[in-house]
Write a structure and sequence with these properties.
Blueprint (H helix, E strand, L loop, with lengths): L3 H4 L11 H12 L24 H6 L25 E4 L9 E4 L4 E5 L4 E6 L2 E2 L7 E10 L7 H6 L21 E7 L2 E8 L10 E3 L3 E2 L2 H10 L5 E4 L6
Parallel strand pairs: 2-11, 5-9, 8-10
Antiparallel strand pairs: 1-4, 2-3, 3-4, 6-7, 6-11, 7-8
Amino acid sequence: MTDVFETAAAGRRPFLVSRRIFLAGLPLALAGCQTARLEQTPLEMPAAVLPRVDPYYAAMYGPLDDEPFPIPALDVSKIEPRWLRQQVAFDGAERAGTVVVDPDQRHLYLVGEGGTAMRYGIGVGRDGFAWNGEATIRRKAAWPTWTPPAEMVKRDPRAAPYANGMPGGLDNPLGARALYLYQGDRDTLYRIHGTTEPWSIGQAVSSGCIRLFNHDIIDLHRRVPVGSRVVVRPSRMA
């Protein structure tokens, strides 16, 4: 898979992960939601049909110089508008404050009041690593540490220096923030996190985790408290 060293409502039911999918995905989930070995083909609009850059989005995705690791501006002129953060109408049954993930549409919704939601573009798990159900955000982290599993350390000498964890930073595959999903007291090993690969938003390339632009995970991290409910809808493409 292309890792950091190379590129440096349906589901309103108890959290369910099939034994086959969970066991297959466990080592890679522990790897910190690495990207599959795929060509980097961003879901960008052809240059001939790119709209003029909206100053609103240019400001929203501008440089974040006040972070411990300053984040450069995102070139929104090369990103389809549907992947950009925006407030939308929402007709789901979930209560305000719930995080709803729609893997088929590649969108995450933070449900608001009055039939609205804040919508974010996301990257999701590839075939065989997708999951659905309910979870709770039990922990939040800024610039989280990424720790490769022992299996990766053994097979990839580039991972060996990080056997005890890669500190947070712009090269860390978890990005600027991470939300840790639990079922009761059990860590599901799945995360909602940022990414070092903005081209992957809108694609199914991860090992099951949900990834957002760093700008967006910072925004979501600020909005959702520990204890928030997360609903991941089942994929109709599975």
